[in-house]
Structures are given as C-alpha cells and as structure tokens.
Amino acid sequence: MIKTFINKLLGKGAPGAGRASKRRFGKRAEVPASVHGIDPELVDRRASDVVRTLKQAGYEAYIVGGAVRDLLLGLKPKDFDVATNATPEQVKGLFRRAFIIGKRFRIVHVVHGRGREHEVIEVSTFRAYMDNAAAEQVGGNEKTSKAQLAGMQHAVDASGRVLRDNVWGPQDEDATRRDFTVNAMYYDPETQVVVDFHNGIEDARKRVLRMIGDPATRYREDPVRIIRAVRFAAKLSPLGFALEPKTAKPLLACEPLLQEVPQSRLFDEMLKLLQTGHALASVAQLKGLGLEKGIYPLLDVVVERADLPFVQAALQDTDRRVGEGKTVAPSFLLACVLWQDVKAGWEQRLAQNQHAFPALQDAIDDVFDKRIGDVSGRGKLAADMREIWVMQPRFEKRSGSTPFSMIAHIRFRAGFDFLRLRADVGEVEEGLAEWWQQFSLADDVRREDMLEQVREDQRARQRKAQPVARRVPKAAEPAAAKGAAEPLAETGGPTDGDAAAPKKRRRRRRKPAANGGEAGAGTDQG
Predict the structure, then answer these.
(1) Mean of the pLDDT values across residues 89-114?
(2) Catalytic member of 81, 174, 203, 319
(3) Residue of 91, 78, 177 lying closest to 119 (CA atoms)
(4) Which of 56, 97, 218, 371 would bridge 111 by S-S if both were Cys, CB 3.0 to 4.6 A apart?
C-alpha cells in the first residue's frame, strides 16, 4: 500500500498514466489528400527528390513546417524543409552536395544547382522532447558558455533557455518540441498524406496561431519565439490569422528574456521580420502587442521611424520587391532607416566648416558605432551601406567622367534606388532621378548628348546669374567742346552721333592727325 502511495505521488502506475503520457505528445492523425486538399503541383520537385532518396534508403522522411502550412492554404512555399529519423551524418552520406551546419541545432543543407539558381533543402533529424529539469545546465548564456557547451547534446541555462538541442527522438516528440500547431505538420509527397499530432489542420482552418504546450514555458525555452510569433502573425494576418489569446498574453512579460540572447541572433531575426515581405505588417503587430520597444535597439528605431515618409517608402518598396520575387538586401533597408542620422551628422559638421567628404565619412562612422553595434557580418553590411550613402552627393555632379564611373559602380543600382526614394518623398528634385534613370539606360552617343545638354544648362544659368554690364556716363565736358559738338547734334541727331562716336574714336587713335587739336574735337563730337 505504501508503494502504491509513493507511485501515485510520482505519477507512476496511476490509471491511464501511460495514455496521459502519450497524449502529452499528441495523437497521430494521418489525413489523406481528399481531406486536406494540397495541390501536389505546388510541391518543389527537389524537396520531393530529397524525401524519396531518404525513404529509398530505409528512413522516414517528410516535408515539414511552414511549407506544409502554406500548402494547406493554397500558397506556393518559398522554402522547403525536410524532417527525417536519419542522423545528420546519415543524411550527408546520401547526397553528393550536403553539408552539416550549426552547433545549437545540427542540420544538413542539401544543395541543388549552382550559382544564383541554386536551392538549399534544409534537412533536420527528429528531436526528442527533453524536460529541461533533466538537461545539463550551464552558467551564462549561449555566447559566454561556448567552452562548457562543447560536447553537450542537450543543455539549458539557469533560466531554462535551451542552448543545445541535438538529442534524436521519435516523430511525435519532434512535433511537440516545435512552436505552433500550424508549423508542426508533416507531408509525404509520395503518399500525399499529412501527419498531424496537434490539430494543426483544424487551427489552419480556424485561422488560429496557437503555441504547442504552455506559451510562457516555451518562450523561456527560446525567447526568440517571441519574435517568431510576431513574424507569423504579420505574415498570416492578411489571410485572417490571429494569435490565440493564451499565446499572445505572455509575450510582453517574457520580452526581457531577449536581453540574454546573443546580438547576432536578434539581428538575424530582426531582418526576417523586415525582409520576408511583411515589414509594414510586422511593425503594426509590434505596436499592437506592445512590443514596439525593447526587443532590439535597431528594431526600436525602425518602428519609431516607420511613419516617416522616407522610411515608410523603403518598407513599402521592400515588401513590393519580395512580393515580386526580387532580391532584397539588408544594407539598403537599414541605410534608409539610418539616413536621417547620417544626414544630421553630416550637416552639423559642414556647419563647422569641415570638408564635405571627410565630414560625411565621420558622420557615417558615428552612426555605425551608435546604431549597428557588434553583429556578425557587420563589415560587409557596413561597406555596402557606406557606398550607398557616399554615392548620394556624387549624384549631384553630372560632369566630366563622374557619371560614367557611377554607372559602372557595383552598387550603382542600390545607390540609384536610394536616390529614387529620396526623390519620391521630395528630398531631391524629381528631375535628377529621372536624368540618372535615362543615363543608365542610354547608349554612349545618347549619354554624350545628355552631358552636353547639362553643360549648356549650366552655362545658361551662369550667364543668367552674372550681373549685366552697363556703360557709365562720361563726366561733364568742357563748354568749348560741348559748343563745337552742338551743330553736329542738330544736323545728325543725338542718337546717330552717340552711336557713331565710339567707332570714330577707335579709328582716330590708330591714325594720328596732323593737327592735334582738330583730331581731339573730331573724336568727342563723333
């Protein structure tokens, strides 16, 4: 009896305890194509090839995550991920171009194609759902505990945040350790069956974003899920999705947990918020959830300035380009967001009589130190942003070889797009942006004509700006000379005499007269 009591306290041997444990990881449901309605034509062929190769080698394999969610909604996914029970080493051995990456989460990138046309299929191994109380605990955080984390498969810090998660397990546990129910479904492109453990299909139909498990606990495990919640809500809001109240409630209280996340991870998550085609919606979600400040300093600046015409135009342009399938660069968007700081610092230095170019460079350096901080890839990011900013005053110079060197610059398109946005909001003349648009597309003959026209316009403005030269009337002449001139004035008229006088004076000086007095009288009279 005592044993029974102890087992009851420990949760062992209780009626239905085994079933409760199983329900913790959800109930497996296999949903056929006749029910879920996924169009197989929307499935990427290369993702299907990866699944087929793994299955032929004797492993389980499925398309997983956001791709399945988008397929259920009738959307063509941008990225396809695959989940399998094969280990990363086993996956790598099946593909010619496969690379194991990551330490926190070890995954495999299977690469198809080359150059700009290449595609990466991300393959992850099913992970076990580990209780944080049973995990190895380390002090510090992911950045400061690298030495302690070496060799660990599952580790958490003192707050319960997962720093390592590389313990392999069954599919149902892998589904439970994912974040949202709509992201925890598995699709087999060969059988066209969707495997669902947490009613993801039902939530997708109800347009609900619901966290698997206790939301506050899941945010503590990985605070970056706070940003992911905002991103998914922004992405899916046009389709009618909204965060479940229980999922949204702990967001604000858990926000301070982000202070312990490495800056590089936060920077990457910020870029995902702003560069996945839903930047304006993400800003609206942040404001609506009370998260407009405190996630990441640079993101705070974006949200604060999102209503300014120039920044708003940049966010709209980024969303448009993503929607059209065009590439976007973080350097361009951040250059737009921080241009206000650069311009203010530059103008301040110019007011102190500093030379223009060094003043601009100093202003840029100050902005990098204040706003960007120490993030991975800062060198490349900073170089691209600097080139965009330095180009702006050079667009004003349309003479000599400058225009030809500008259009040959590797960052010309980014610099011009920046100028275009400045013109759209009235910061520079519309005609300047139009001129560079035409010049960049013209042939050499047309470019020379355009430069000649610019020179003519400049000369015309200079002539117009110069003061008009006027003849100063001569001083009053001696009475004798004036009297000698009167008869001629009466005969020939004052107008004729005045017009002819300068010419006769110049001729008389080249041919001196014999009688000096008569020559002088003739010059004055005309």
Answers:
(1) 89
(2) 81
(3) 78
(4) 97
